[in-house]
Amino acid sequence: MENAISNLAVKRLIEEIKEEIEGRYLDKVQQIGKNTFRFKLTPGTKDLLIEPGKRINVTRYRIKALQKPSQAALIMRKQLSNQKIDQVKQKGFDRVVQIDFTTGKSIIAELFGKGNIVITDEEGKVTYNHTRVKTKNRELEKGKNYQPPTSKILNPFTINLETFKENIKRQKNGVSTLAKTMGLGGPLSEHIFNETNIENKEELTEEEKEEIYEVMKEVINRKPDPVKQQEEIRLFPLEGEIQEKYQSINQAIDENYKQKGNKDEQTQKKIAKLENRLKQQQKSIKKFREKVKENKKKGDLIYENYGKVSKVIESFRKGQYDKLKELGAEKKKGKILLELE
């Protein structure tokens, strides 16, 4: 599941994992990847994973933490260890999950864009933010009140028919309204239109708008039946071949990221093997260059002392060993030793 989790998937996921999280204590925080954190919960064997901008899920897997605890993990651990989780909720219909503790503190996981993990105190002030945010419309800074993202998403569960009709006029077509304004994404929005048999056009009749509204309400309230299609996790089967079926949305996310992690681990092992081979080759090249340099120096010395070397060789051939000594050379174990400067 490479893509970020959808707004509707966040809602259904929270409904699934509430019981597994609420009432448990946060033991410690560990960083297990480049931007993934494990929140170890007790009692129990399952832990919570948060990857800002990507996902939040409960995992059954034991994933190795970084050998040296990261500064981010240490700060979060210090602020939250041994605190009891009171409730888990989605903020509005946004891709933002808030985990409240009985102490009044909260973790806010932002799953849109580059993402973020924010910790707030009892007054809602930021005590930690994984990524500093400072834009024209929003600022997240330690000691200031948490400022939620500006959202244009309308909640499809609470929107009434008249508001729906008004917003469907503002988009170029009906699918765009469902995908962008309702936050349902392209595939699900197209599926809703397919169920109505209404053409996806710019101008829709009042009757068509009402039918789309009713079908949308019926579809989003269906019980999730998660599958993988076109390498994407979907809440229920849409058009296309089903690659995998799952018992829950949480399982779908957990299994897919585990598979991705295994592939990444295998890739890292291959990279490490190639890097080791490269180091050995670099060492061999270095030794070869040193040997070339040494032999060049010897060649230069022989050239500079060519006359003396020639006399030594000639004396050796003729067996004039006394003359070798006069030239500063000596015969040793069948070899001629001659020191040149």
Descriptive terms for the model:
9 helices, 341 residues, nine-stranded antiparallel β-sheet, alpha+beta, ibrinogen binding protein from staphylococcus aureus fold, single chain
Task: Give the SSE layout.
Layout: H1 7-21, E1 25-31, E2 37-42, E3 47-51, E4 55-59, H2 71-80, E5 83-90, E6 96-101, E7 106-110, E8 116-120, E9 126-129, E10 133-134, E11 139-140, H3 161-169, H4 174-181, H5 186-196, H6 206-220, E12 227-229, E13 232-234, E14 244-245, H7 249-304, H8 306-318, H9 321-326, E15 329-332, E16 335-338
Antiparallel strand pairs: 1-2, 1-5, 2-3, 3-4, 5-6, 6-7, 7-8, 8-9, 10-11, 12-13, 12-14, 15-16
Helix pairs in contact: 3-6, 4-5, 5-6
Task: Note poorly predicted spans.
Answer: none
Full CATH superfamily name of the domain at 7-140: ibrinogen binding protein from staphylococcus aureus domain
Give helix % range. Answer: 40-55%
CATH class of the domain at 7-140 equals Mainly Beta
Q: Pairing-aware structural class of the strands and helices?
A: alpha+beta
Q: For the CA atoms, what is the radius of gyration?
A: 35 Å
Distance from N terminus to C terminus (CA atoms, Å) equals 70 Å
Percent of residues in β-strands = 15-25%
Mean pLDDT: 86
Secondary-structure element sequence? HEEEEHEEEEEEEHHHHEEEHHHEE
The order of strands across the largest sheet is 4-3-2-1-5-6-7-8-9
